[in-house]
Write a structure and sequence with these properties.
Elements (H helix, E strand, L loop, with lengths): L17 E6 L5 H14 L4 E5 L6 H10 L7 H24 L3 E5 L2 H9 L8 H5 L10 E6 L2 H5 L12 H14 L14 E5 L4 H20 L11
Parallel strand pairs: 1-3, 1-4, 2-3, 4-5
Length: 233
Amino acid sequence: MTSSHDPPPAASSKRGAFIVLEGLDRSGKTTQVKLLEQRFVEAGRPVKMMRFPDRSTTIGQMIDGYLKSNVEMDDHVIHLLFSANRWEAAKHINELLASGTTIVSDRYFHSGIVYSAAKGNPSLSLSWARAPERGLPRPDMVVFLDLTPEEASKRGGWGGEVYERAEMQRRVRELFRGLGGLEGEGAVERDEDVVVVDAGGGVEEVADRVWGAVEGRVGEVVRGKRGNVRVVE
């Protein structure tokens, strides 16, 4: 019998699991991604940590300039650049998963569609934003680290980039909570891959909640019950 403190099983699997952590800016994603990665390392399972946007590529550098308010771009243009940045990594993601390597990612396509839709541009809906993502490798689970903008703003570094504004962050949280199926969050269609986890409290406490959310899904991948990697539809 396993508990929330147990590491993932060390048995070999047909493919790696693909787990994504999402959240507001300064919600602790990077820390929790590293802690989740460490669980797999300690269990002797191959694991790769990724982060989106990947600012090391040419497209990523363009995104970095936008996020730091060095350049202005149309909402549709920057959205498509974010999407292109993920497509740059798609082949590598598939290769890693096929080799049995688990991927733990700091953001992925859900951030792309939610942050774009949260701008309130009437011609950039969630459905429009999702279209360029169709065909990308689809995560086995997406964990949204739920923290209020007021709590996030108390953490170091808040406000340094273009999306770190209270109203924007409130809308992002609302959309993610809607995707996670929480009631009272507006007319957002439930996404079965998204689970909402309370990001308040101590780092280790949050890490246990994250593992409690993903443990069962990882076990299904390990036992071969989830089959091949799916794609975004």
